[in-house]
Design goal:
It comes from Sphingomonas pokkalii. The protein has 206 residues and is of the alpha+beta class. The chain has a domain at 61-201: 2,3-Dihydroxybiphenyl 1,2-Dioxygenase, domain 1, CATH 3.10.180. The chain has helices at 70-81, 123-126, 147-160, 194-201; strands at residues 2-6, 9-13, 59-67, 87-88, 99-107, 110-118, 135-143, 164-169, 173-180, 185-192. It has an eight-stranded mixed sheet. A two-stranded antiparallel sheet has the order 1-2. A hairpin with a 2-residue loop joins strand 1 and strand 2.
Length: 206
Amino acid sequence: MRSREAKGIATTVSTATTPWWNPSSLMCSAMPSDLPHDDRIVVRRPPAVAPAAGSLGLELFQNAYVVRDLDAAMEQIGASFGVRKFTMVPVPPLDGGATLRIALAWCAGQMIELIEARGPGLELHATWLPEGADIRFHHNGYFVRNEREWADLLQKLAEEGRPIVMSGDSGFIRYAYVYAAELGHYLEFVLPNADGKAFFENVAAN
């Protein structure tokens, strides 16, 4: 053991070389032993898709937040976390005076989505913010790879008793939302076509 001063606070640092945990005691039968090693990641992980894991078993790629003011939210995320480069999603004019503004950013392999929604038809997002809040987590986004996986997803959602609360096709992605009451937020499933894949691949990276 040795002691040192750090910013005026006395700390004690252990110099023992033996780890406090025993790696051989960590049993995880589901982790394949032949997963490729990548020095850029901290731990090896199972495949991104787990067909037996229900609706959570698809490729998680996005954390999405509803915001009160998109410009202010992008500025705040940039100042707080250094994520300063965003791509705006093209949204066609909406009926009834509704407005929808969406900004996307890649950050370390995960996407951040910021959504400002106002007006009729956008209640799924527009009513999500409590009074006094400017940003709130809304949903996880999952990629669906193909039509067969989409059909399997619909079957899983039916088996889990999760009705689709909003769905559609933007022209470059098909999407569907369900509410996961156990988690307290929504799940969005996204099946991109070729144009959609190209769009996601060109979202600003931080």
